[in-house]
Amino acid sequence: MQKDKYKRMNDIRNTLLPNAQIEAKKYQRLVASLKSELDALIEQSKSIVADVPTVSDHALIRYLERFHGFDLDKFRKEMLTEERYNAILAGCDEIKLDKVTFKVSGKVIVTVV
User: pLDDT tens, 17-29?
Assistant: First the structure.
């Protein structure tokens, strides 16, 4: 029984551990390579976005409000009912309603998904 334990320890020390270390180094190199590739893609995407004319959400909202007569305060009141107001005060960070969810940060509805 003791002999089997020593054999197992030697197997681990001489074979399994070195193989595992080699595999770990391969994965470390792969992770480093993928991280570099991801960083490069992120930088490329920044330049692509910067080179394409677009409209910000803020500008779109102001356009709808000023040129199409959208009453944003009306929509705010629809979104922030008394029930949702109280839920936010109670600390909820998500409020589900039918097919949408209001996401809350602090005491502000920050998005609707």
Answer: 788 888 878 878 7
Q: In this structure, are residues 109 and 97 in contact, taking their beta carbons and an 8 Å threshold?
A: no
| Cα 40–Cα 43–Cα 49 angle in degrees, nearest 5 | 140
Q: Is 21 exposed, middle or buried, given 0-12, 13-18 or 19+ CB atoms closer than 10 A?
A: exposed
Extract the tokens encoding 51: 């080179």
| pLDDT per position as a tens digit, 77-106 | 999 999 999 999 999 999 998 899 999 999
Task: For residue 15, give both structure tokens.
Answer: 């074979």
Domain boundaries defined on the chain: 1-54, 71-112
Query: Quick check: helix, strand or coil at residue 94?
Result: strand
Q: How many helices (H) and strands (E) does the chain have?
A: 5, 3
- Whole-model pTM: value is 0.50
Cα(5)–Cα(84) distance, integer angstroms: 65
